[in-house]
């Protein structure tokens, strides 16, 4: 079952990840004492650290802006149906901003369009790892699992999406996954695989003719 790509409209819900605080910084530790005999050296170190921080923030800003440019280019290409070109742009953006969940989720949608269910499953899984409270990521993961032949896992993913956002688009997809899961159980109960079942039906048709 092929899933069509659609532009993500919930990008504003992506949370900004905060940098961890370094516990070794003296002003973060109330028990830390300063040695006044080394005040000049400490001051120089502080100036050096400040410059390094400024350069680091500047580089982060440039990298973020570049990633956003590649993401926008990918969005435009995807809307035009140029999926492979879009995928290339998003791959570059992911290299620059690997913790941006929306990029992984949109990548998964494109991979589904291209028929690569396994890679789509991996990309969607990464999106849910980065944003576990984002319903759209769980929907895309469920669709990838459905295309990969895992309706049981897909049902679980759609359930998670519905638990987060009850009015999301996962209801119909869950019904599809449940139907496929029941069909699989019926085949297993008869002792026939899907391939064997198709063969017997075709063979019966030939014999009747």
From TrEMBL:
Q: Where is the composition biased (Polar residues)?
A: 30-55
What does the UniProt keyword field contain?
A: TPR repeat
Q: Specify the domain of life of the species encoding this protein.
A: Eukaryota
Concerning InterPro entries, the annotation shows: TPR-containing (IPR052658), TPR-like_helical_dom_sf (IPR011990), TPR_rpt (IPR019734)
Q: Where are the TPR repeats?
A: 67-100, 135-168
Respond yes or no to whether keyword Nuclease is given for this record: no
What is the protein name for this chain?
Tetratricopeptide repeat protein 33
Species whose genome carries this gene: Castilleja foliolosa
């Amino acid at each position: 079952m092929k899933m069509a790509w659609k532009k993500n409209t919930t990008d504003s819900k992506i949370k900004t990840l905060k940098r961890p605080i370094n516990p070794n910084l003296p002003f973060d530790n109330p028990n830390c004492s300063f040695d006044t005999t080394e005040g000049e050296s400490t001051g120089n170190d502080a100036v050096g650290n400040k410059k390094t921080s400024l350069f680091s923030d500047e580089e982060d800003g440039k990298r973020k802006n570049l990633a956003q440019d590649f993401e926008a280019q990918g969005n435009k290409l995807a809307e035009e149906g140029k999926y492979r070109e879009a995928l290339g742009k998003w791959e570059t953006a992911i290299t620059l901003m690997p913790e941006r969940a929306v990029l992984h989720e949109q990548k998964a949608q494109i991979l589904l369009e291209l028929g690569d269910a396994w890679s789509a499953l991996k990309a969607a899984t990464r999106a849910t790892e980065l944003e576990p409270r984002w319903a759209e990521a769980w929907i895309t993961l469920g669709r990838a699992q459905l295309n990969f032949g895992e309706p049981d896992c897909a049902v679980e993913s759609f359930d998670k999406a519905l638990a987060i956002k009850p009015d999301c688009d996962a209801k119909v997809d869950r019904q599809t996954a449940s139907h496929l899961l029941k069909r699989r159980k019926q085949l297993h109960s008869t002792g026939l695989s899907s391939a064997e079942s198709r063969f017997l039906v075709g063979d019966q048709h030939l014999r009747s003719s």
